Amino acid sequence: MSKVDVGSEMVHRGPVKNRSCTDVFCLIIFIAFLVGWGIIGFYGFTLGDPQRLLHPTDSNGRICGVDETVKDKPYLFYFDLTRCADPSVLIKGCPTPQICVKKCPTETFLAIAEVAQIGEALTKTKLICKENVTVSQMSVKELVDKGHCASYYLQSEPITSRCIPSLINMSDSVIFSNPITRQVEVPIEEIVNGTIGLAQLLNAGQTFDRIFQDYSETWWIILIGLAISMLISLFWIVLMRFVAGPMVWLSIIGILALQGVGFWYCFMRYTELKDLPGANNQTLAQIAFTTNLGTYLELRETWLAFLIILGISMAVIVLMLIFLRNRIRIAIALIGHASKAVGSIMSTLLFPIFPWVFQVLVIGYFAAVALYAASIGKSTFKVVGPDNMTNIDCSCTSVIDSVGTCIPLGFEQICGSQCPGSTCRFFETGGNYYVTVLQIYNLFGLFWGLFFVSALAEIVLAGAFASWYWAFNKPRDVPAYPLTNSLFRAIFYHLGTVAFGSLIIAIIRSIRVLLEYLDRKVREYSDTCCSRSMMCLCKCCFWMLETFMKFVNRNAFVLCAVNGTSFCQSASDAFSLLLRNVARVAVLDKVTDFLLFLGRLVIVTAMGILSFYVFTNRIHYINEYIPPTNYYMVPIITTVLGAYFISGLFFSVYSMAIDTIFLCFLQDTEINDGSPEKPFYMSQELMEILGKKNKL
Length: 696
What we know:
The protein has helices at residues 24-47, 51-54, 111-118, 120-126, 140-145, 188-199, 201-275, 293-297, 300-344, 353-374, 411-415, 433-469, 482-493, 495-525, 529-563, 567-579, 582-615, 633-671, 684-690; strands at residues 2-6, 9-13, 75-78, 98-101, 109-110, 152-153, 156-159, 162-165, 379-384, 423-429. By secondary structure, it is mainly α. The strands form 5 sheets. A two-stranded antiparallel ribbon has the order 1-2. The protein has a two-stranded antiparallel ribbon with strand order 3-4. Strands 5-6 form a two-stranded antiparallel ribbon. Strand 1 and strand 2 (9-13) form a beta hairpin. Helix 15 (529-563) packs across helix 18. It is elongated and about 110 Å long.
């Protein structure tokens, strides 16, 4: 808190010291929610087994490479891949026998053909069969016909621990090459269609290896590029103090100049076509629609329309300059003010790293809980008929329910006569109603947690910058450690307010996610123009509502940090204050957006060009230090994305400084009058623009 000596009085301004806890009830709800989220996590970590999702499961429900009986068999083999021509086999089973094997087949094999070539005994040594099958007691034909052994298999590679045929260099006509196998019908085309996408992942794996190699070679150069982008971002913020005004005015003048040139050109083209003998005198309404734009450019009406549009836009901009010039000057001065505040409290530039780390932790906890909760569901077994289909008519109701789910234990003994040739096989790891509720709770926890961390960062920065603004003699009167003091105030007094504001945004975001889900379901069952329009309207409304509430929350946190009031009181005061100064708000918002957009564009573009010249060896002085890369775009894209992220961190602080100082400025103009008892805390430049001065 700053103090101004006025005779024997001490005038106090800025973040109040004597404050009390706000929105305690919301804080209690948030703590209770976190406890519930923790219980859900404990429940998932205790009962869940991600191995069920990460590793394949055989027809008996055993996890390959994990369960004790198949620990030495990490790969899943499908008896008939034509039944699995669907990418969903990576998550669910398919209606064909599946067994765990020690290794995937290394050759192409067709049982009947092999018997004719090498005999029964040697063929049996190559068969892949189920467990507890006595191969010696049956012929190869019997083993295949009864489904005990696979009738064929192809040379395969392990992809996500599944044996997938190596079809990349294989064609339909040469998979089986000897004369005998050509007489046996095997639906090779179906196998190719079902597995070609997965087979291409083999090449993708090699690509990932090369990308990883590029990162291992160029990581230090990427870090240097990110450090440079950080320095440029800091330099840009400092530069705004001096060039914000010239940049805004030059941009406005440039836009007017371009519009003036366009207006003149349109007028010249219009007069030329008007005075040109034999010119096309048709109107736009008389010409049928055409994709040939040159046809429209030959019409006088086209250039007249351009002329009117440019004239109106120029008139609007000129009128805005005439009536809003002082507000534009105020916006520019406030931006310079914010740059000084950031420069005075340099620790605020590093502060965004901490909420970012906490947000990463929230996302990590959400992902872990989601993974473990998804694996809580029990294994589902279904009846599979002789044709490997699940939709069979089997009346053995003692171990089969109405949807075909069965109990594997004793199925063959109980239902062997009623369901001849059918088996009870593992189908998928399915969830239940309670798991779905847990996942919804977990998703809401993600939203509330992320928005809570973001809101806490905003209120902390707002308190720090408010301390700077309400110092009468800057920077001498700025309190020591303003950022640390603001953090302690937020934690000890206003976590309830932070929880309240973030809860509102989390609820709106959850409704938006629900609308997206409903939209997909509606498109599946009733994809009509009316339903699409209604869903689009609902999604648009809630997007606007979320955007508006984020704006309200941000300003409410500023006044909460300054005045120590509750969320509702702060939101009401902030909204009323902004509504009374709506023109200033609009101008400042657009000017700020323009400058921040220009800054990010400059930083990202500069880093993209620089990294391109570095990694394509176009800078001869440093070529000997730049390692060769497999894909030079990998480090370039990484550097550009990193520069965008880093500039966003810096500019988020800058944007919060502008919003905070703007609200403090509005409060300053309303509660102070420049008298010794109520002096203005704004800069001398702002007082000159407003025609005010302190009478000290």
